[in-house]
Amino acid sequence: MGLFDKAKLEKLTLRAFKPAGSADEPPKVSDAPQDAYTVQVNPSSYTLNRLLNYSYHRGQGFSASEAVYNDSEPVNLEFEFLFDGTGVVPKPSALGDIPLVGAIASALSPDEPFVVMDEIKKFDAL
Predict the structure, then answer these.
(1) How far apart are alpha carbons 40 and 47 in whole angstroms?
(2) What does pLDDT average to over the chain?
(3) Quick check: pTM over 0.85?
(4) Half-sphere exposure of 112 (CA within 13 A, CB side)
(5) What is the number of domains present in the chain?
(6) pLDDT in tens, 41-95
(7) How far is 102 from 92, CA to CA, in rounded Å?
(8) Phi and psi of 48, rounded to 5°?
């Protein structure tokens, strides 16, 4: 067992769904590279909101209301993403799951610089 086999740092990857052929067809995750986005820095927290709707009926002569379940709103999941264009945080690389090697690979990579607005456009296109 090697040094890097014990723990693995993985970046959050968001994937888009393929368009469904019909309303009865379950959604499928797209495998196309343009339908995936790997974040530069993992979010430090997230918020998961669930909202239940109730109606309240008060019977005559009662001081308390009875809550009756109506429906549920869709679940809302929120992340806060950091896009760093200063160069302090290395851009994602193919070796990004190994922290030191990923940072060295990013620094030595001949690729174009990490441009924040370009990354936001890629993210927005999902």
Answers:
(1) 19
(2) 79
(3) no
(4) 4
(5) 1
(6) 889 999 999 999 999 877 677 777 788 899 999 999 999 988 888 877 776 665 5
(7) 8
(8) -120, 115
- What is the token pair recorded at 34? 């343009």
Domain with 108, as residue range(s), is 3-124
Beta carbons of 85 and 114 less than 8 angstroms apart:
yes
Can you tell me whether residue 25 is helix, strand or coil?
coil
Give 29's DSSP letter: B
Distance between alpha carbon 109 and the CA centroid of its chain, in Å? 26
- CA 114/CA 64 separation, integer angstroms: 59
Q: How confident is the model at residue 19 (pLDDT cuts 50, 70, 90)?
A: confident
**How far is it, in rounded angstroms, from Cα 123 to Cα 99?**
23
